[in-house]
Structures are given as structure tokens and as C-alpha cells.
Amino acid sequence: MKNTTLLVFSAHAGDFVWRGGGTIAKYIKNGADVHLVVMSYGIRGESNDLWKIEGQTKDGVREARKAEMEKAASILGVKNLEQWDWDDYHMYIDDNRLDRMVRKIREIRPDHILTHAEGDAFNADHELVSRKVFEASVLANSAGVQIEGLPHTKQQRIFGFEPHQTEISSFAPEVIIDITETYDLKRQAMECFQAQKHLIQYYSDRAFMRGNHARRCSGNQDYRYAESFTRRFPYVGGEFV
Q1: Closest residue by Cα to residue 112 from 12, 228, 231, 227
Q2: Most buried residue, 48, 104, 118, 172, by most Cβ within 10 Å?
Q3: For the chain, where are the alpha helices, taking DSSP H only?
Q4: pLDDT-based confidence at 195, cuts 50/70/90?
Q5: How do strand 5-10 and strand 112-116 relate by DSSP bridges?
Q6: How many CB atoms lie under 10 A from the CB of residue 121?
Q7: Is residue 237 one of the residues assigned to a domain?
Q8: Given this model, what pLDDT does residue 178 score?
């Protein structure tokens, strides 16, 4: 991980924590260069508890979500953070926004991109971001797509978060990452999101369950907690790993 660059695209303020916080913290802890882009705060669609406060405003929700997200990112060790503050529910990504994504990929030149997996039964924003990150990576890798000062990149490995309501979204794990060493950081980061308190226990249970799968699939009994992901492309190498 020490010589690895990871770029994370999170549709909403909490997504990167719920779905990949342990892995992000693990990469940072082990010396990777990690960059996080939070595309929206989830003001309209992912802040229900905040909207129950009498007299609440859009600006009030934005500030609360921003504070929660920044605190959580800090706990995980994220130092390279961009906040794009796009509207959510439903998010739109036009050519100008896609160009911004392409430029970010060329600027960071990641080995891995972590974002939303294809298919989310209950969240069109997540599906849109999954599709547009893939499109942006294709454009970033294409030499014929010329952007002054930003040469094309090499092929990245793209991994997708496990969606909420896993089985209903027809998600099947293709990569399981042990997060035992950083689970406590993930738990602390999740506790920041009082706008979505109902998800804290859900994703704690999910990490425990994926830890069970990690032990069963690997035989390594030291794995206690884990996160799972899809991978856009097959593993390529000179041997089975």
C-alpha cells in the first residue's frame, strides 16, 4: 500500500464511511496516498433526521452535514479532501461536471478508484455516480482526449462499494478486505453522522458479517471485521493470488 494512490468518489457525505471507511483508513495507515472527493452533502435525500428539527433550513442541513463529514474524514486520517457540494436527489452530471471528474483523475493519477458499485435498488444517485466515474476513467485513459497540462492516465483498477440493502440490489462480493486493524476508526467515524443514526448499527453488523466471510473464504482466523466490494475488471497477474 505504501506506493499506492487511491482516489475515492463518494456520492454523499456519509457513503465513503459506511461502505469503505475501514479500507480507506487501512490504506492511509499503511502509507498510501488517498484522495477523497465528496460530490454532495446529501442535503435533500440523506438527512431526514435533520429535517425533523423545527425551523430547519437547507443551509442549516448543509452546515451540519459538512461538519459531520469533515470530522469523520479526519478520524479516518483523510488529508486530501475535496467537497463539490452538488445537489442530490436527484444528482445530475452534465458534460462540464464529467470534465471535472476526468481532470481530477488525471491530476491524481490513481492506481485504484473506489466508488459506488453498479446497481443500487434504492438510490439513483449512487447508480449515476458509478456510471459516470467509469465514463470519466475511460476518458482520462484516452490519449485522444487531450487536456492541456494533464496527460492521459494508465488503466486504473475500479472497485465498487457494497450497497445498502445488499441482496435486494443483487450485490455479490468480489473482493473482501480485512479491516480488523481499522474497524475502531470506522466505528468512530460512523458515530459522527447523527443525521443517519439508524445506519450505524447496520454497518457495524455488516462489518462483523463480512469478517465472518473473510475467515471462511481465507482460513485466516485473525480476520474479525471486513468490507466487501465489486471489481470492474478481472484480476490480471502471473499467478493465482
Answers
A1: 231
A2: 104
A3: 15-29, 48-51, 58-76, 95-108, 124-141, 183-190, 198-218
A4: confident
A5: parallel
A6: 15
A7: no
A8: 98
241 assigned to some structural domain: no
Lookup: cell for 57: 433550513
Per-residue CA distances from 80 to 5, 144, 157, 173 (Å):
11, 29, 20, 28
- Please indicate, yes or no, if residue 141 is contained in any of the structural domains: yes
DSSP string, 97-162: HHHHHHHHHHHH--SEEEEEPS--TT-HHHHHHHHHHHHHHHHHH-TTS--TT-PPPPPPEEEEEP
| Boundaries of domain holding 225 | 5-231
Q: What count of Cα atoms within 13 Å lies in the side-chain half-sphere of residue 51?
A: 9
Placement of cell 479532501 in the chain:
81
Is the residue at 79 inside a domain?
yes
Tracing cell 487501512 back to the chain, one arrives at: 26
**Domain containing residue 21: CATH number:** 3.40.50.10320
Q: How confident is the model over 26-38, as pLDDT tens digits?
A: 999 999 999 999 9
Report the predicted TM-score, pTM, of the whole model to 2 decimal places. Answer: 0.97
